[in-house]
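Run: sequence + glutamine -> complex structure.
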Amino acid sequence: MSVHTVKEIVASLRRGEAKPSEWAARILECIRRADGRVGAFLHVDEEGALARAKSLDGQPVEGTLFGVPYALKDNICTAGLRTTAASRILENYVPPYSATVADKLASAGAVLVGKTNMDEFAMGSSTENSAFQPTRNPYDLERVPGGSSGGSAAAVAAGMVPFALGSDTGGSIRQPAAFCGVVGLKPTYGRVSRYGLIAFASSLDQIGPFTRTVEDAALVLEAISGFDPHDSTSVDEPVERFADGLDTGVRGLRVGVVTDIQEEGLHPGVKQAVEQAIAVLQGAGAEVVEVSLPHSRYAVATYYLIAPAEASSNLARYDGVRYGRRADADTLLEMYERTRSEGFGMEVKRRIIIGTYALSSGYYDAYYRRAQQMRTLIRQDFDRAFERCDVIALPTAPTPAFKLGEQLDDPLQMYLNDMYTIPANLAGIPGISVPCGLVEGLPVGVQILGRAFDEQTVLRAAHAYEQLRGFEMPVPALEGSA
Ligand code: GLN
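>> structure
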């Protein structure tokens, strides 16, 4: 299967070699051929995509995403197009409005082709918590694509779309990007509007791109960033031209390596690949400095109090009255009970129960308040570290992709997938995952973190590494038993 970057597609449109409708048709054909095996999409909007692409035919190619087909994670609302968050409770939900990111991409001329699979309400690390279907890793169909944005990651990896958006609350863009051998970027909290993103944990959620190259990630980030009056947490920072200046190299850039990083559970192959990636940056003139993040060891525990607490409150709105599914019942209480029992999957229920407990009177101080205090300490660790360095390099996930079913019975093991990604969400800082090799034939990623609103430096370091790493990610052959 041939794969294309955003940049290549726009260049071909500019040269007049193809029309937007031809690209859309090609991409749809590619999805038809590959997605039976991968299961990346929950719905493909063939008609809408073709109509929209046709309307662009003959128009001048303006901007960097004009005519480019793309996909959205199914927790990003699209007016008139079903948006389920991969939950039974929203199975037939058709939003009356589109998320700001979808509007922005539409006005940039990008063409939405479909909505991608995910863990229900973005809770999970394998996409196995989808109420509808599993998604398979294009590099090995017996393995998970990571999660929760596994559908978006797999769609880009398999060449079904040149880019897709996901959401990252504790690692849900970066971890699946690492598992699927693509680039995944979580912007600074507040950089991209969350308006129209189905809320999981509002103080952590952030939308970002999956792409094949760092440069494409910069282009998509620029298109979706910016202040939005509909999202009170979006920040009024100027939107930079992130793709400019990518080529300035890393000479003199201070790259932090974490001396007290948790190594329990870290696959030796991943460790080695990440060390090599850091050596590549060093070889290009970056200065490696040691930094300490002493409280990051508590990040997973902290996250699993704060995120469920916020989720328990955000998910209270699915009561059978205002949204989506409603169960039949004789009394109101019974209706609530049945709607939520039938509508939510196991993991979502687990989070609601944990979150409600952590917030309940008598436990609030012991759990929720302490978690908030720990969050501050974790953020302060980063503030101190970034006095000594410009970016921090570390693994994205501790292991390569695991097998379908392998971690389903062990939620704690599943939660540990995010040990290296969660700290950035708690601190609100940007992070990217870039493929840094294959371990046992499976892609792994190096994660680069930066200061809040300094995506530019993160992208510059990631791009330099990508140019110098000395290998191309092989295109997955989509072989396996599925
Ligand atoms: N895997 C983490 C969780 O289940 C993170 C998910 C996410 O970033 N949306 O909460």
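>> summary
The chain is about 35% helix and 15% strand. Residues 122-125, 148, 167-172, 200, 307, 418 surround glutamine (CB under 6 Å).
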